Amino acid sequence: MMNFPSKVLEKAVEEISGLPGIGKKSATRLALHLLRQSNSQALGLSDALRRLVTDIKYCKECHNFSDAEICEICASEKRNAEQLCVVEDVRDVMAIENTQQYQGKYLVLGGKLSPMEGIGPSQLRIDSLEKRARSGEVKEIIFALSATMEGDTTAYYLYKKLKDLPLQFSTIARGIAVGDELEYADEVSLGRSIRNRMPYNEKM
Predict the structure, then answer these.
(1) Is the dihedral of CA 130, 135, 140, 145 positive or negative?
(2) Into how many domains does the chain fold?
């Protein structure tokens, strides 16, 4: 157990160590590093974290993080509104955008079906997906879900729900290893998997 000369420092270390992947020693190093910086640098970080909590929004159309009611991707006239890429998480949008291989739009589900974790259809943004799919604007639904049993189950559920609509369904090519999450895929493999996507059918 660490002994701290200051309760203020101890509280800061406690809060920092609550972040994923950061233990008490790393948190202590970070806190001491901040103390060695100028007040403006430390307060700049503090203000950025405050704004992260108070100012960030979810896009009303795709549910990506945004500074405005509608995110830059959804608002852009350069994006192909006929393609809708369905992902689990905001981090997946960031990963795909980093490949620069996709110019359509997105729908962030907010997770994947997982009965073991108590995540059913009502916990995901499936109603929002249905609304977009029935809008008449979307021509292709691209399933870019993780290569896991839960990801495959989610894609199958969504396909069954939407298959009667006049839409083309596709899924990213399995350049991504089975069991992998999109955010951890390298940009080249992920870019190829988007570019070489395959038609989706319920027998996959």
Answers:
(1) negative
(2) 2
Q: Measured between alpha carbons, how far is 176 from 174 in angstroms, rounded to an integer?
A: 5
Amino acid at 69: E
d(CA 152, CA 204): 9
Q: What is the pLDDT of residues 175-202, one digit of tens each?
A: 544 445 555 555 656 666 676 676 776 5
- Say if CB 197 and CB 108 are below 8 A apart: no
Is the pTM value of this prediction over 0.90?
Answer: no
Backbone torsions φ then ψ of 47, nearest 5 degrees: -70, -40
Q: Domain holding 128: CATH number?
A: 3.40.1360.10
**Where does 88-153 show beta strands of DSSP type E?**
104-108, 140-143
Structural domain span for residue 83:
68-199
In a domain, 170, yes or no: yes
* CB-CB contact of 172 with 86 (8 Å): no
